[in-house]
Design a protein that fits this description.
The chain folds into two domains: 174 residues, Carbamate kinase; 30 residues, no CATH class. It is an alpha/beta fold and 210 residues long. The chain is globular, with a radius of gyration of 17 Å. It starts with 8 loop residues before the first strand and ends with a helix. 48% of the residues lie in helices and 15% in strands.
Length: 210
């Protein structure tokens, strides 16, 4: 079991469904609770890192589009607008608690390139040492793979796991509207069973998780 006394750096991932209403507009009450909690943990001595989705949803709403864009270039435009809006909200709310934030946008190329990965790791280390909360998202304006497959794979779950490894995190917390790992898809199978604890990741678990 995890010993919280040994935890120093925590990565928190939050998805679009948590940050926004169904119409894509920011859920200010939830964002404020998230920011307050992260700020309190930071004040307790933890080093906090936030992986945040929501750029496309927020951008879609801000641009007044009737629905999430299907055309890739329009999705990228919505992401660019939404990311700016999200960071404005985060910056303003975190400053209410005396916490500075930094924006880091990543692509798969950044992660697989050794030099870039080392530079990103060093940036994480420098930011957390001086008490800044890094806020990470995939760079949707150039990373087309995530935008094409976002409906199939979920927002930034994989990215948050990669970030947790890159910044040597002791704990990764993923906020989701799914309770956890199931033995099948609970959205399509009402008999799906929740697996409360995974002690070891083996071939069976990998198949189950897809």
């Amino acid at each position: 079991m995890l010993n919280m006394n040994e935890v120093r750096r925590i990565v928190v991932k939050v998805g679009s469904s948590t940050l926004t209403y169904d119409n894509g507009k920011p859920n200010i009450r939830r964002i404020e609770r998230l920011v307050r909690t992260i700020s309190d943990l930071q004040n307790r001595g933890f080093e906090m890192v936030l992986v945040s989705s929501g750029a496309v949803a927020v951008g879609t709403a801000k641009l007044g589009l009737a629905e999430r864009p299907k055309e890739l270039s329009v999705k990228q435009a919505a992401a660019a607008v939404g990311q700016c809006e999200l960071m404005h909200i985060y910056d303003k709310m975190f400053l209410e608690y005396g916490i500075n934030v930094a924006q880091i946008l990543l692509t798969r190329e950044n992660i697989v390139d050794d030099d870039q990965r080392t530079n990103i790791h060093n940036t994480f280390t420098a930011l957390t040492k001086i008490g800044v909360v890094p806020i990470i998202n995939e760079n949707d304006t150039v990373a087309t793979a995530e935008l094409k497959h976002i409906e199939n794979f979920g927002d930034n779950d994989t990215l948050s796991a990669v970030v947790a490894r890159m910044c040597d995190a002791d704990l990764l917390v993923i906020f989701s509207d799914i309770d956890g790992l199931y033995d099948s898809n609970p959205r399509t199978n009402p008999q799906a069973k929740l697996i409360n604890h995974v002690g070891r990741i083996d071939a069976k678990i990998r198949r189950m998780a897809g």
